[in-house]
Specification:
single chain; about 170 residues; alpha+beta; 4-stranded antiparallel β-sheet; 7 helices; about 45% helix
Amino acid sequence: MEVPDFPKEVYKLNSWFFEEVVYKFFPKIKVTKEDKKKHEQYVRNLKRIKLKENVSSYEDFLESLNIKLTFYKDDERFIPRLAQLTQKTNQFNLTTKRYTEKDIEKFINSKNYVVYALEYEDIFGNEGIIGESIVKIENDIAYIDTFLLSCRVIGRRVEYNFLNKILEDLKQKI
């Protein structure tokens, strides 16, 4: 639990409240493109479940999905979604750090960080940005600050492909 210190000057109370309480502890999460397509995502997932029931093995299921992953690096177009993912992803979030849009923007514009985003698509449709990793680079050493994946794609081996792509990119950078 954090309890912010009140300002000594009473006249600063309003600005203090917004800057030190509201913006810091209650960041506004925007409605993203993925949010607007929730119903479609549920319908597509039902189709995946039916497909899974009609194939002989899990390997066949994965192969029949024809998964396409698109990797993005330091792409400012996804700042709202990336901030949202850090705020609400719990099941596959290795560090559970929570970031605002301003935080993500700072990481993207920093020489010491790389922000990766992962987009998922299969035969049933595009699920949008479902993965994120923030990597800090310090003295030619890369530290994973954040690595998370939406629960919508867990179990489809997406996390392995995402991590391998990040490692390939970092090998080029370091």
